[in-house]
Write a sequence for this structure.
């Protein structure tokens, strides 16, 4: 759960007043998006952390390059009985008592090995790729479904709204982590096939879909509320009077008005989705071995915390850096677009 | 008002029914194959499988199986697939531990959240406020199981300031040992919420500090300290207190799974985590339902209390 409020990175005391002053100074005709962009550009801290996030994404995407060119291994290759030569000294990758080698700070085993003799650095990069893919993929699923459901139930009202709202009530009552773990374990037994869609057991899509679904209600409810208010506005009435159909009104009149809410939520949902992925993987219900992910690596490392703390510390630091970057950048986006947005998620 | 309350209570029961059906479906419809075969293991004879199927009613239709499981839940006869222990007895053993963890952590995060939020708001924009903001955001961004494991390792194992996990009952080790074993879990669980609460309180205070009634209070010549505590803080705390109720429910209803597992507290959450590892459906059903009961009851109570306190809320 992460609930965020107020200016995090823009440290002004009285944000609404500051914004009002700024809007007065903007030349007439400056659109709200341009004002928001200008405000975000001025928030150097948020921008810096946005860049940090992009860097972490780039580094994770470059995982195969590091694996092939520098470490000469794959994230799955076990070398439990091998030795490597560091500075002319031959050492076991995994000692006879099962303790893996620590960081060598060389190309091979830069961050040391895990208990199977796999290269931690390589797994860290590939794991980052998985964690980020799942986090971003899940957030896109959340956005699409929450927008669709929020629009449908808010705009049409009536029985459709009643049914969707009752489904939200049920989802709301489910403890997120228990639902995620139950679904994760159950789906990983034999996968699932619904019509043309098929999820294989062990697939990365399973945690992606689960996390995506788990957060829908947190975004759909505020969107529904917004649609309820927008529906009564004059411009919607005008659109109706022009003979626009409901779908066209939703797409061309309402959706653009929801865009700022969606943008404000997106980085914060990604941050929480990454944390939830880590928690699910930690409990064995997320990413399945031998596929790496940061949460799974922490979970595998904790067993060896006393003899090989690097196995726990390295993926944890990457995870915290990524989530922190998203949180700070997300607060910056919120301050720029909609400083009063109340956001509440659970992880 | 009475009608509103009755309607909320009926809705509550319906939601819980839906949660129980969904949880049942998750484990009985999604996985392909025969649950009896899964339970019997790889080296089992057809006769053994047949016996398990009879014993656990897997040969009946799904609605019958659901009815059977719900009957067992409500009569307290639910037993685990894995080791035949009574699920309610296990939960009853775990609940005091989960509550000890949850209540202690909730008090800790509320106290520190208010103190830090207030301090941050009074010092808004200064260096100390910025430091607290950064710390709060770091706290929000850390996975609890990672923090917990590192605390256990550095403060417990390396420095030996604290015990290495585990739970000691007051009856066995006395109050001191109980506290001593819970300090790290409380802290680990509370960090996230301290970050969240201090941020929310800070912004609430900054929102109200310029309100007319605060200016009136100042104009009357009330001391700044009294204005802060009696007028500003009091109003800024309302949303925090609501949140506190809901978050406490979430922690008891599963939010503590990770903390309990890392510190080996053997509470309800850890029971859930261990059951899910063995695909032991009955404990998972029971804990999920219990968690949903907690969330739904607390939500309903908060709604009703709000409606009673605030006449502006429409009883829709």
């Amino acid at each position: 759960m992460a609930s965020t409020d107020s200016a995090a990175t823009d440290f002004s005391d009285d944000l609404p007043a500051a914004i009002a002053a700024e809007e007065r100074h903007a030349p007439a005709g400056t659109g709200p998006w341009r004002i928001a962009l200008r405000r975000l550009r001025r928030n150097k801290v948020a921008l810096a952390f946005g860049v940090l996030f992009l860097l972490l994404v780039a580094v994770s995407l470059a995982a195969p390059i590091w694996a092939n060119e520098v470490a000469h291994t794959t994230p799955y290759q076990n070398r439990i009985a091998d030795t490597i030569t560091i500075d002319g000294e031959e050492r076991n990758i995994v000692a006879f008592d099962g303790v893996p080698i620590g960081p060598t700070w060389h190309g091979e085993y830069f961050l040391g090995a895990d208990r199977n003799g796999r290269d931690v650095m390589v797994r860290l990069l590939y794991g980052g790729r998985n964690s980020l893919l799942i986090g971003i993929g899940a957030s896109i699923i959340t956005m699409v479904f929450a927008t669709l459901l929020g629009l449908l139930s808010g705009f049409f009202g009536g029985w459709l709204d009643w049914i969707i709202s009752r489904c939200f009530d049920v989802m709301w009552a489910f403890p997120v982590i228990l639902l995620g773990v139950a679904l994760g374990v159950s789906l990983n037994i034999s996968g699932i096939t619904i019509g043309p869609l098929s999820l294989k057991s062990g697939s990365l899509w399973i945690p992606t879909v689960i996390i995506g679904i788990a957060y829908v209600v947190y975004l759909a409810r505020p969107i529904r509320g917004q649609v309820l208010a927008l529906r009564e506005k004059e411009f919607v009435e005008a659109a109706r009077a022009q003979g626009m159909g409901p779908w066209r009104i939703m797409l061309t009149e309402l959706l653009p008005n929801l865009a700022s809410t969606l943008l404000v939520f997106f980085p914060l949902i990604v941050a929480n989705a990454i944390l939830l992925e880590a928690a699910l993987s930690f409990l064995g219900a997320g990413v399945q071995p031998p596929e790496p992910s940061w949460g799974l690596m922490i979970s595998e490392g904790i067993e060896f915390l006393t003899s090989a703390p690097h196995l726990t510390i390295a993926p944890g630091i990457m995870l915290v850096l990524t989530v922190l970057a998203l949180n700070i950048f997300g607060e910056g986006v919120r301050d720029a677009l909609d400083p009063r947005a109340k956001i509440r998620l659970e992880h | 008002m009475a009608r509103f309350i009755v309607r909320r209570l009926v809705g509550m029961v319906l939601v819980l029914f839906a949660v129980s059906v969904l949880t049942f479906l998750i484990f009985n419809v999604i996985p392909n194959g025969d649950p009896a075969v899964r339970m019997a293991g790889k080296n089992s004879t057809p006769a053994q499988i047949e016996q398990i199927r009879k014993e656990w009613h897997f040969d009946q239709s799904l609605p019958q199986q659901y009815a059977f499981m719900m009957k067992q839940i409500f009569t307290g006869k639910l037993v685990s697939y894995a080791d035949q222990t009574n699920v309610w007895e296990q939960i009853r053993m775990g609940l005091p531990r989960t509550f000890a963890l949850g209540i202690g952590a909730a008090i800790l995060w509320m106290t520190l959240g208010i103190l830090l939020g207030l301090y941050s708001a009074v010092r808004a924009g200064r260096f100390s406020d910025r430091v607290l903001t950064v710390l709060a955001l770091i706290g929000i961004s850390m996975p609890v199981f990672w923090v917990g494991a590192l605390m256990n390792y550095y403060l417990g194992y390396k420095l030996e300031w604290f015990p290495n996990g585990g739970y000691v009952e007051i009856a066995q080790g006395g109050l001191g040992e109980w506290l001593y074993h819970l300090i790290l879990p409380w802290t680990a669980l509370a960090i996230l919420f301290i970050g969240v609460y201090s941020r929310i309180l800070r912004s609430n205070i900054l929102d109200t500090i310029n309100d007319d009634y605060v200016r009136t209070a100042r104009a009357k010549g009330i001391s700044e300290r009294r204005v802060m505590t009696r007028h500003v803080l009091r109003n800024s705390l309302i949303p925090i207190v609501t949140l506190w109720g809901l978050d406490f429910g979430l922690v008891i209803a599963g939010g503590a799974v990770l903390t309990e597992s890392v510190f080996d507290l053997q509470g309800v959450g850890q029971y859930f985590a261990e059951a899910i590892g063995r695909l032991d459906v009955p404990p998972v059903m029971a804990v999920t339902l219990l968690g949903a009961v907690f969330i739904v009851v607390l939500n309903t109570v908060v709604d009703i209390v709000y409606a009673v306190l605030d006449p502006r809320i429409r009883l829709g």
